[in-house]
Amino acid sequence: MVKTHNAAPPLSRGRARSAADRVFQRAVIGLVAFTSLLIASAGWAASGRSVSVVLMVEGTDVEAVRREITDALPPRFAMQDPDTTRAALSTQGVMGSFADSLSNQRVRKQALAAVHKSLLQQGVPALIAIRTRRGRAGARETRVILVMSEQVEPVVEEDITLGRNERMRTKIGPLLAVPLEDIEALSEKAVAAPSKPPPEKSRAEAEKPEKPERAEKAEKAEKPTRRSRAEPVAEPPPEEKEEPAATEAPVRDTVAKKKQKLDFTNALFLVDVGLEAGARKMTYSDPLVGPLRSYLAPGVLGYGVTAQFYPGASSGGPIKDIGIVGRYAGSLGFESQTKDGSQKATGSWTRSAIGVRGRFNAGQKNSGPYIGIEGTYGTWAFVFEGDAAIVAEVPSVRYKYLRGAIDARFPFNAFSLIAGLGGMYVFSGGEFSDRFPHATIAGVDAMVTGAYAILPWLEARAEVTYTRIFSSAKPERGDAFIAGGALDEYVVFHGGVAAVF
């Protein structure tokens, strides 16, 4: 006859440290996080002087769009009237919309040359051109162009669609954030560089009246030259050939590569840090032999860090979206005790994973969804220590597993929603496998994350993850522990910030 044991009463989580210590820890962590955000925001907003850029708005609702763009750009940027630039385009035969003219290869080169010449003459580092048109259902089709005086090709040349009630700053602000930093640096460099004074003329040259260029050429043409009949007519020397003005060409001779805006879908490096609160519930099905206690921990405090690295992100090659992902999470010290408080066990909870991750856009450009697929090897340890007899009865586990997962990021202006699913093949359970050596273990998990962009490179995140690890014990006659299986469930709330570089 098989001897049976009823499941022992569940354990409840006790206090490992005093309330004052925990309050102090939370205050320190919160102060560090707040200080980091304050420093980052101050560095972003700091500006030594205003930077002038030419703003050219074309299409429908020009004045309203101009106000939206002005509000979307940092206050240190001053908008300059585009009349001089329009005149330069007109002299090159470029009529109509400048933003649309760049799509016409016949006039693209002339349009860019005219803009570069105008920028250099005005001493302005960049031109922002916005063209809007009414689309379906009240949407606005917007073309965004950013031309810098030191770049041959536009730094930004994007077509975006704005919803009926969608503000321009939600998309144009992040789109222009990185190029505007370069423009500001270029402007500060130009201000710091000492200007060279023009060469001084001699007294005789100063008193000599200057002749207009055309009159001087006509005078040279009227002067007769003596040549013999046998002497061939020579071609005019190279220095007399009309050369384009130096201001007509950009400073750089080579075509600069178009700079891509940095965000959470194309960054080289991404890091996510935050605080966590988790709960665990462990139950056995049909516990027959052995001291098998169920377990409940309603709240365990901890921290978590995630990092993603894409070595080829800056190269733009076929592997630019293949990278490495790593995660680590740990808990603060906690105690669990029986209901009567007679026995206690000290617990710890750690999770780690490393593997390969790929990302790609499964929808329209700038609107997503952005898909992530990864495969990782990980460890998951929820263990107890102590001298009490109860330590041998509580369900310590040390899972080692392979996990495959997929997630999708859906952007909605400054807010993004991220959802994911994963599956785990557990090939070792640590102490659990020692109790049930024939058991098969597997798991599934689901994740939902809400992210809000504080800055183009920084966002606040709130995430909830549910993990369900289930096993079939498959006991055999003579085993010290006999049960039908076990269900190990975890819920983790993660709140923190994520940044890209």
List the helices and strands and how they pair.
Elements: E1 8-14, H1 19-45, E2 51-59, H2 62-72, E3 77-80, H3 83-91, H4 98-101, H5 105-122, E4 126-134, E5 140-148, E6 156-162, H6 169-192, H7 203-207, H8 213-222, E7 269-285, E8 293-309, E9 322-331, E10 334-337, E11 344-364, E12 368-385, E13 397-412, E14 415-428, H9 431-435, E15 440-455, E16 458-472, E17 485-500
Parallel strand pairs: 1-8, 2-3, 2-4
Antiparallel strand pairs: 1-10, 4-5, 5-6, 7-8, 7-17, 8-9, 9-11, 10-11, 11-12, 12-13, 13-14, 14-15, 15-16, 16-17
Helix pairs in contact: 2-6, 3-5
Account of the 3D structure:
A hairpin with a 3-residue loop joins strand 11 (344-364) and strand 12 (368-385). Residues 1-18, 35-48, 221-236 and 238-258 have low confidence and may be disordered. This protein has 2 domains: 46-192, Rossmann fold (3-Layer(aba) Sandwich), CATH 3.40.50; 262-500, Lipocalin. Helix content is 23%, strand content 42%. The protein has helices at 19-45, 62-72, 83-91, 98-101, 105-122, 169-192, 203-207, 213-222, 431-435; strands spanning 8-14, 51-59, 77-80, 126-134, 140-148, 156-162, 269-285, 293-309, 322-331, 334-337, 344-364, 368-385, 397-412, 415-428, 440-455, 458-472, 485-500. Helix 2 (62-72) packs across helix 6. It has 501 residues and is α+β, with helices and mostly antiparallel strands.
